[in-house]
Design a protein that fits this description.
By secondary structure, this protein is mainly α. The protein is built from 19 helices and two strands. It has a two-stranded antiparallel ribbon.
């Protein structure tokens, strides 16, 4: 069974069990039958709040996750989903109250050192609690909508937390990296794009700050697009979330094929002001080298995610599309300007993101049609890039026309197939919600 099928099954089971419990509550003793499903609600509450408290009070989780800039925003994405799906501002009062309780427990009872980003984590954990309670207490279509918001959100937060461990394993498996191979390709373009982007960010502090903000705030537009599409078209929303979830583990597999860290890891303080000469780069012997750092250069998963955000925001309001597009451009600036990625990393992200989208478009047939075409093209081009960079990087030095032609062809063909794939999806149909959405509350 596919992940969407498992998700549908889980949502249906929880929804049915909660409906049974509500029927017993509403109809009184006459409706009470021997069943274990009716006790789901109290058990779920105990499990939900027990997990939240265990995480919030754990010192290791506090230092590794709650105070982490990126992971705290991943937890805070629950607030975004809660507000956009429920559209009840009173929920924010419960989130604020829950965040205050968690901060009191951590700072006054556990004695943890206060950190600014911890506030986002506390709000996110509280939002998980509020959304979880609403998911079980609601009825009918509203319950299904909230469960579709809650369950994938838990999976997304868990995948973000596990990514660090997977990257550590990749670094231990590959002590040597192929950074010189990727640097050689970038140099064959006769323009050091990452160095120039780094200089631009250094000269414009506001641009650097904005780019880094967009870079670390990636979980927020992921949650935004999913929540907005969930209210418009459930099938399209699930395709988007499945793509968001699949990008991490599949991307780490590709990191193991061509492990690399980024130009700042090999040039250090020299980056970005001392641009290597093209003639020197041409004579460079590309060999694996020992480097410390996360092997997360190619393909750029940040670029992959923002491309998925942009394409899956199709049909959303203009302000959502505007936010998605802003994340695309600022992510380009951040990934290159901070020296964490080579230009080729972003190029390969185009066919890689297309491969992810085609793989996860479960509502379309795979044996025929656009899904099959896009997937086969994307995986072939992605693997072809990795193979050429690994074994034939000197090929790109024949003429700068060759690497630039490949870059333009890769990006343009990927965008063209993206358009065809997204047009192949069913027409958007708004989800009808019951009036109880406007009156439900936590009690």
């Amino acid at each position: 069974m596919t992940l969407p099928g498992l998700l549908n099954s889980a949502v249906s089971s929880i929804s049915h069990a909660s409906s049974e419990r509500n029927r017993v509550r509403d109809e009184g003793p006459a409706a009470m039958q021997p069943t274990t499903k009716a006790s789901l609600n109290p058990a779920f509450y105990v499990l939900l709040f027990g997990v939240i408290l265990c995480l919030a009070l754990n010192s290791d989780f506090y230092t590794s996750t709650i105070t982490s800039t990126y992971l705290s925003l991943a937890l805070f994405s629950a607030v975004v989903v809660l507000v956009l799906v429920r559209r009840q501002w009173t929920d924010l009062l419960w989130v604020a109250l829950g965040a205050l309780v968690l901060s009191f427990l951590d700072y006054r009872i556990r004695g943890f050192k206060p950190m600014m980003m911890a506030g986002f984590s506390f709000a996110g954990l509280a939002a998980f609690g509020v959304l979880g309670v609403h998911s079980v207490r609601a009825q009918g279509e509203e319950r299904k909508l909230l469960l579709y918001a809650f369950v994938p959100l838990v999976l997304f937060a868990g995948s973000e937390w596990a990514a660090t461990s997977l990257l550590d394993i990749t670094e231990r498996l590959h002590p040597k990296t192929f950074d010189l191979f990727l640097f050689s390709f970038d140099s064959s373009l006769h323009v050091q794009i990452s160095f120039l982007a780094g200089q631009l960010l250094s000269k414009l502090p506001w641009l650097r700050s904005a780019s880094i903000f967009f870079y670390v705030a990636l979980p927020l537009p992921l949650a935004l697009v999913y929540a907005v599409q969930l209210r418009r078209n459930r099938s399209m929303a699930l395709v988007a979330m499945l793509a968001f979830l699949a990008t991490g583990p599949i991307g780490i597999l590709f990191y193991n094929m061509l492990p690399a860290c980024g130009p700042v890891h090999i040039f250090g303080a020299v980056f970005p002001w001392h641009i290597p000469r093209t003639a020197a780069a041409m004579r460079l012997q590309a060999t694996p080298i020992l480097i410390k750092g996360a092997r997360n250069a190619i393909p750029s998963l940040h670029m992959t995610w923002v491309l998925l955000i942009w394409w899956n925001s199709r049909g959303a309001a203009r302000w959502v599309r505007g936010i998605a597009l802003a994340f695309v451009w600022f992510t380009v600036a951040a990934t290159l300007g901070t020296g964490e990625h080579y230009f080729v990393d972003l190029v390969v992200a185009f066919p890689f993101s297309l491969m992810i989208q085609a793989l996860c478009s479960y509502s379309l047939p795979f044996r025929t049609g656009e899904r099959r075409t896009c997937f086969l093209f994307a995986i072939f081009v992605t693997l072809a890039w990795l193979a050429l960079l690994s074994f034939s990087v000197k090929l790109f030095w024949i003429s700068p026309l060759l690497p630039w032609t490949m870059v333009i062809a890769t990006i343009s063909s990927s965008i063209l197939l993206w358009h065809r794939l997204m047009r192949a999806h069913p027409e958007v149909k708004p989800i009808a919600l019951q009036a109880s959405v406007a009156t439900a509350g936590v009690s």
